[in-house]
Amino acid sequence: MHIAYERILIIVILVHMEITYDDFTKVDIRVGKIIEVSDFPEARKPAYKLKIDFGSEIGIKQSSVQAIGVHTKEDLEGRLVCCVVNFPPKRVADFESQVLTLGFKNTKDIGWVLISPLNENVELGSKLA
Q1: For residues 115 and 63, what is the distance between their CA atoms, to the nearest angstrom?
Q2: I need a surface site. Which of 74, 77, 97, 101 has the fewest CB within 10 A?
Q3: Nearest 5°: CA angle at 9, between 8 and 12?
Q4: May I ask the CATH class of domain 27-114?
Q5: pLDDT (tens digit, 9 = 90+) per residue, 8-45?
Q6: Reduced to 3 states, what is the DSSP secondary structure of residue 112?
């Protein structure tokens, strides 16, 4: 088999890998409210630092997001976002990102469009089911 074909085959297998429902339930996705947004000039790629309130059970966590070019600081403050809260913290430059804020790649290939519930009648810290 040609080496390039083997690489394509491996990529296709990885992209279409199925997981079980039990695998999915291990990912703890919660809704939080962005309470503070600040610039993050130390990051390699343009990013913001966020403080996100997940309610009394989880509390306030911080996250780094590459949302510049898609969202302004004013647009983000007060917004509800969906985050993975049970990944280990990740160091980004001099900052510890405690949760993974979820989003989709922008069609202009600059930044990420954050996932945000349309209806604000969601309790902070609610788990995605």
Answers
A1: 14
A2: 74
A3: 85
A4: mainly beta
A5: 444 455 566 788 999 989 999 999 999 999 999 999 98
A6: strand
Q: What count of Cα atoms within 13 Å lies in the side-chain half-sphere of residue 52?
A: 31
User: pLDDT category, 108, cuts 50, 70, 90?
Assistant: confident
> Structural domain boundaries of the chain?
27-114
**Burial zone of 95 (CB within 10 Å; 0-12 exposed, 13-18 middle, 19+ buried):** middle
Helices (H) and strands (E) in the chain, counts: 3, 9
The DSSP bridge partners found for residue 48 are 39, 65
CB burial string 17-56: b at 16+ within 10 A, e below: eeeeeeeeeeeebbbbbbeebeebeebeeebbbbbbbbee
- Return the residue matching tokens 């209806």: 119
pTM equals: 0.83
4: three-class secondary structure by DSSP: helix
